[in-house]
Design brief:
Chain A: It holds the Pfam family TPP_enzyme_C. The complex is a heterodimer of chains A (about 325) and B (about 625). Chain A is α/β, with parallel strands linked by helices. Chain A is built from nine helices and eleven strands. A seven-stranded mixed sheet of chain B has the order 11-10-12-13-15-14-21, with helices on both faces. In chain B, strands 3-4-2-5-6-7 form a six-stranded mixed sheet, sandwiched between helices. Chain B has a five-stranded mixed sheet with strand order 18-20-19-22-23, sandwiched between helices. The chains are: A alpha/beta (about 325), B alpha/beta (about 625). The structure holds iron/sulfur cluster.
Chain lengths: ~325, ~625
């Protein structure tokens, strides 16, 4: 195969969402609420990036919904002037599934963290991914519990000394990208809070993807896990980071191949996700598969289309179905 | 052959056999025929939690009881008059429920050494004399069925399977049931397997002819149709009625219905039924777990659907946190709990009503939710509509407390006129509702917690509505504007306001109906009031009839709304000297009544996994007279 694999447009994740004719700016997406993260928190950079990127989508602001769980990053929806719900720990993907399935005209985003998505909410995350619900999931990974003041998380490195693990954690950590690929996600990417350009380009691709898109965002928590990703920042990081592009030659162990995020077989993408030095960032996987919400709506729509009766007439028919008898 | 015909006013028949013997189908068909014939009836299926428990054993016994009559009846009957036992285990498991003199029809075919041993019999009860006090009919149902259908060349196993239809045919002859609907049913059911279809129909008619031509049964029985109010009727189970009620609520509110659910006994049939109703715009989402089921339903409610989740008690335990979120978000949501025996996994296929306090208080913080409970299988329809009315009008999660008896039990239902169903107005918010300081021309802001002054309900503003963008969440919200607030006085206000909102629902409830014929006499009359809720309605009303039949006065009131309680309940309780509260739990409504009204309620608390009997209720009433 000699053709260059490319990120061809795979059916827009936003094609059913109404667009706005008004010019928009980042300010339009900024709510009147005071942002209450700690000074220097990586969440600020992601918020800024999202606020300045959303106008580029050109959607009607009222058709955008952000749903979050619990944790520092889950305060995110309060700071965006869209529709938003700050829900309960780990359940945002389930709630967002109900929104996305019932409303094709909404752009639905989930904001979650490593504890929220991978610990208490692990079940909902993998099922949202395998069903391929049309959601864009931003997983802020700071490898620590911030809001509860510094316990190790499911992505903390083994041996981590925290308040709840004074002699080191003995948990083997999840790799969120590997997990998502294992759950048969159709879009999986990784980016980092400090690289606004990369972050924005990955978000744009994720939003455009029709289906569940998981974006792991390495996010610094200066209070409880400062510097977790320092070696991936700045000019000195060049040989620590592998910026994935379609067609890029990649080497894992003694094998080299051309990275193809659109490859249906995820084996190479998974092999890449295991790489720790350098750390790959960018789009690991971007494939097309029918989405749960589109198919669920299609089943309902074809049932409705097959009947010419009004809803009331159908109700009368339903209630009078089966063996009936009449008393006069 | 001319046969003596005896008129009866009511009969209770129990069909019992192995789980694989088709007793539920047999009972359901007999029920359908009786319904079409015009009898009033109620049914009580009873089956093991295992799909196929070891064949021929007591744990594998499945039964179906039907009570049918020429007058209106209220229960599936305390004790069977007739037991049809397909094997020794079915006989042994049910014999203790039979009064002396009852009729027993046994399939003699399985009364052999091995099967007797499996059921725990040392000696054959058909020969030992232990059934002398009953009218025993020995019939080789299996043998005659196999003989009758041999022309179809079925395997012996398949041929023997039709024995339940032979038994049904025989019972249809014995009680003069019309047979057309069962033949029609078998034709439809087995349309793709003509041999099986014909074998079943032949077994059914052969059973009928066996009654007619042999002298095994000297008497036939006649149970005249009951007087019923004019209208069109069908026989319906509680789960089906509840599912229909949800669809009706969606139609009457103009909302799409979204069900998020995880399979659980005995609620799954509601999921199955709604998954077939896509033509109404119904979306069913079989979630990865109970939490995701309610989570998705809540998400859909936020987005403007009638959000519903269906489950049983263990599932409610898992959903508690999300119900609390719905309380905080103040969004409409229906939580259907088809209660079963607890605690923990408990008795999945048996009935109980021990989740009332869970519904009232099973959440962290002050998290009041309205509770509605249907009283009979067909009442599940109206109760579902009522729960939806409350949820949508007051923007609140509502708990609908059905139970295993209502879910699987059935009764005739007069199909309502659509015009008589309540209209429900979702009243979505479409415009800003608050005027900022900067505004010179009216409302220019949207405040998600600015309440309707009458109901205290907040606006339901769905995504896609321009200008109403807002954020809600589980953190405490400031009164009106809805932004996060940690202010102590605000929290106090919000806790009280959420409680007041639920309490105000009582303003819209009709006065309670007290069934007390003695009240009209004006001589003081009844001194005892029986208070119930949920599926105990039938047994209580039947028990009350027994007591009145014995010449005593007693009053009855039944609660559909458990939270808030009706405004007039306190005054009604005060009118009587003694208050009896029969419940299939250890006194949960009693506790609420005692706490709320300082009334010395006496409980009758039996938790066998079966409905209360009218006899035990009558005894409890008589003790208080
Ligand atoms: S604790 Fe850490 S993650 Fe949380 S807001 Fe502070 S810096 Fe950010």
């Amino acid at each position: 195969m000699t053709a260059e694999p490319s990120l061809h447009p795979l059916g827009s994740g936003l094609e059913l969402v109404p667009t706005s004719h008004e010019p928009q700016s980042g300010k339009d997406y900024t709510s009147d609420q005071e942002v209450r993260w700690c000074p220097g928190c990586g969440d600020y950079a992601v918020l800024k990036a999202v606020q300045s990127f959303l106008p580029d989508l050109g959607l009607r602001r009222e058709n955008i919904v952000f749903v979050s769980g619990i944790g520092c990053s889950s305060r995110f929806p309060y700071y965006l002037d869209t529709f938003g719900m700050h829900s309960i720990h780990g359940r945002a993907p389930a709630i967002a599934t109900g929104i996305a399935v019932s409303r094709p005209d909404l752009s639905v985003w989930v904001v979650t963290g490593d504890g929220d998505a991978l610990s208490i909410g692990g079940n909902h995350l993998i099922h949202a991914l395998r069903r391929n619900v049309n959601l864009t999931i931003l997983l802020f990974n700071n490898r620590i519990y911030g809001l509860t003041k510094g316990q190790y998380s499911p992505t903390s490195e083994a041996g981590k000394v925290t308040k709840s693990t004074p002699v080191g954690s003995i948990d083997h950590p999840f790799n969120p990208v590997s997990l998502a690929l294992g759950a048969e996600a159709t879009f999986v990417a990784r980016t980092i809070d400090s690289d606004r350009r990369h972050l924005t380009s990955v978000l744009a691709a994720a939003a455009a993807h029709r289906g569940a898109a998981l974006v792991e965002i390495y996010q610094n928590c200066p209070i409880f896990n400062d510097g977790a990703f320092d070696d991936l920042r700045g000019p000195a990081s060049d040989d620590r980071i592998l910026r994935l592009e379609p067609g890029l030659d990649v080497t894992v162990g003694d094998r080299t191949w051309r990275h193809d995020p659109t490859a249906v077989d995820p084996s190479d993408q998974f092999a890449l996700s295991r790489l720790e030095d350098p750390v790959p960032v960018g789009i690991f996987r971007q494939v097309e598969r029918a989405t749960y919400d589109d198919e669920a709506r299609e089943q309902v729509a074809s049932a409705v289309a097959a009947s010419t009766a009004t809803r009331e007439e159908r109700l009368a028919g339903l209630l009078n179905a089966g063996d009936t008898w009449t008393v006069v | 052959m001319p046969r003596q015909v005896t008129r009866l006013d009511r009969v209770v028949i129990r069909f019992a056999g192995d789980s694989g013997d088709g007793m539920q189908l047999t009972g359901t068909r007999f029920t359908q025929e009786s319904a079409i014939f015009g009898n009033d009836l109620m049914t009580l299926p009873n089956f093991p939690a295992e799909i196929r428990a070891p064949q021929g054993t007591i744990p594998g016994v499945s039964s179906f009881q039907i009570h049918f009559a020429d007058h209106d009846i209220l229960t599936a009957g305390d004790a069977p008059d007739v037991l049809v036992a397909m094997n020794p285990a079915a006989l042994r498991a049910n014999l203790a429920d039979l009064p002396k003199g009852a009729t027993i029809i046994v399939d003699t075919h399985d009364f052999t050494g091995r099967n007797l041993a499996k059921a725990g019999y040392d000696a054959d009860p058909l020969e030992s004399g232990e059934l002398d006090a009953y009218q025993l009919h020995r019939v080789d149902l299996t043998g005659m069925t196999v003989e009758a259908v041999k022309e179809f060349g079925l395997s012996r196993k398949d041929a023997a399977r039709a024995k339940n239809m032979f038994a049904l045919g025989l019972l249809c002859w014995l009680y003069g049931r019309p047979t057309e609907s069962t033949i029609g049913f078998l034709e439809r059911q087995f349309a793709r397997a003509p041999e099986i279809r014909d074998a079943n129909i032949l077994a059914f008619t052969t059973g009928w002819n066996f009654g007619e031509t042999t002298e095994t049964f000297a008497v036939r029985y006649e149970i005249a149709p009951a007087a019923q109010a004019p209208g069109t009727y069908r026989n319906i189970t509680g789960n089906l009625a509840l599912a229909h009620g949800l669809v009706a609520a969606a139609v009457r509110s103009g909302l799409p219905l979204f069900l998020g659910s995880y399979p659980i006994t005995p609620a799954s049939d509601i999921l199955h039924e709604l998954s077939r109703q896509k033509v109404f715009g119904v979306t069913t989402f079989q979630a990865e777990d109970e939490i995701a089921g309610i989570g998705a339903a809540l998400g859909a409610a936020y987005a403007g659907s009638l959000g519903v989740t269906t489950t049983s008690g263990p599932g409610v335990s898992l959903k508690s946190e999300a119900i609390g979120l719905a309380v905080a978000l103040e969004l409409p949501l229906l939580v259907v709990n088809v209660q079963r025996g607890g605690p923990s996994t408990g008795l999945p296929t048996k009935t109980e009503q021990a989740d009332l306090l869970q519904a009232m208080y099973g959440r962290n913080g002050e998290a009041p939710i309205p509770i509605v409970a249907p009283s009979t299988p067909s009442d599940c329809f109206a109760a579902a509509l009522e729960a939806a009315r409350i949820a949508i009008t007051w923007r609140t999660p509502v708990m609908l407390l059905s139970d295993g008896y209502l879910a699987n039990g059935s009764e005739p239902w007069r199909i309502p006129d659509l015009d008589d169903l309540p209209a429900i107005d979702p009243g979505f918010a479409t415009t800003p509702n608050h005027t900022s300081k900067a505004s010179s021309n009216g409302a220019d802001e949207f405040w998600p917690y600015q309440r309707d002054p009458e109901t205290l309900a907040r606006p339901w503003a769905v995504p896609g509505t321009a200008g109403l963008e807002h954020r809600i969440g589980g953190l405490e919200k400031g009164d009106g504007h809805g932004n996060i607030s940690y202010d102590p006085a605000n929290h106090d206000l919000m806790v009280h306001t959420r409680a007041a909102k639920v309490a105000r629902i009582a303003d819209t409830l009709p006065p309670l109906t007290v069934d007390d014929p003695s009240a009209a006499r004006g001589d003081g009359g009844a001194r005892v009031l029986v208070v119930g809720w949920g599926s105990t309605y039938g047994p209580i009303a039947a028990g009350v009839r027994l007591v009145r039949g014995a010449g005593h006065d007693v009053a009855q009131v039944h609660l559909r709304h458990l939270n808030p309680l009706p405004r007039d309940l306190g005054e009604i309780l005060k009118r009587y000297d003694r208050v009896l509260v029969p419940e299939m739990n250890l006194g949960q409504l009693s506790l609420l009544l005692r706490a709320r009204y300082l009334v010395d309620a006496v409980g009758l608390n039996v938790v066998r996994g079966l409905p209360l009997t009218s006899g035990e209720i009558a005894d409890a009433i008589e003790e208080l007279l």
